Amino acid sequence: MSSVIWYLYEFARKSWAEKFAAAKTDPEIMETPSRFRNFPKVHKEYCISCGACTAACPAPMAIKLVRDGDSSDGEGSAYPVINNRGCIRCGFCAEVCPTDPKTLTCGENHLIREEFTIVPVDKMLVIDDYLCIRCKKCMESCKIDGAIVEEDNKIAIDQTKCIACGDCLKTCPVKGAIKGIHIANVEEQKTVINLIVNTLEERIDIEQEKIKDLGPGKVLSIDMPVDELAVKAREIIPDDDLVTDLIEKMTDRLKLRIVTWDKEKCKNCRLCVDECPSGAITYDEEKGVQRNKDKCLRCSICYQTCPFGVAGFYIARFLLDKMDKTALDDYVIHITLKASQLPIRS
């Protein structure tokens, strides 16, 4: 009973009542520190729809990208939406957001390391210096500062900053100058690339007689359907999009040197035998001059050396035609061959 009376007495004290009525929060508690992680705020006008935030979020269903509907004013924009019931306020989404100003803000975290800001992607964009014309349109379209740079008169992509959004790919005026490289299934991709080259060479070999008749300035056109090649490629990589991407890259860049050999013109002078750097051309007393095409480097030395025109030297180029077609099996590779402009040694 005495303890209850004591509590009532303390509660009734005037000094305690005055303190209770005039109670105020400590100013340090009222001011939120910069490192405080609240639920992320979304500034959708800055969003470039890269998906970095969704890739970095460790909480299931805490963040997703949504897209506004298209209107007469233009295409609808995409931006992230935060589900506060799932968000754990870790702030990773804000850390990896590459835009400046940031689309997502929720306080600073001074412990996040730089390597955490690299967004994992299945495709890596690279610039093909052979095809690049240095117009710098890719640099102008890139929304990430420093992702595309110019070094030693060459345009390059910094893979630590690139988010593979594809804006540079859409802007580039030269087909194939910017390529999307799939960073998965690398060994399988190499096998498919070899398959593509070998298949194209086999198709060209069928036309050897027509190629020999090509005169200066003449062009031989060959159309090769992709269906058989696609069947073999799918056995290696069962992904039509990836196979199509590989075929298109190869045909954009590939230039094959073709050497023909007209045995009937050979006089067995053996000039080519001594000049051949790989031993592909030999002499046999019974069979005469022989060429082993498997050892041939296609260096054109025999073509420039032979005074009788036994060796022919041609250039083959390729183009993947997928206009008005939706399936890989319906695509066609256009092959064009013409005589080389290399001089012949006199």
UniProtKB/TrEMBL annotation:
One of its GO terms (molecular function) is oxidoreductase activity. Residues 38-68, 78-107, 123-152, 153-183, 257-286, 287-316 form the 4Fe-4S ferredoxin-type domain. Pfam families: Fer4_10 (PF13237), Fer4_21 (PF14697), Fer4_7 (PF12838). InterPro entries: 4Fe4S_Fe-S-bd, 4Fe4S_Fe_S_CS, Fe-S_Ferredoxin. The keyword Metal-binding applies. CDD domains: MtMvhB_like. Keywords: 4Fe-4S, Iron, Iron-sulfur, Metal-binding. The keyword Ribosomal protein does not apply. PANTHER family: 4FE-4S FERREDOXIN-TYPE DOMAIN-CONTAINING PROTEIN (PTHR43687:SF3), ADENYLYLSULFATE REDUCTASE, BETA SUBUNIT (PTHR43687). This is 4Fe-4S ferredoxin iron-sulfur binding domain-containing protein. It comes from Methanobacterium paludis (strain DSM 25820 / JCM 18151 / SWAN1).
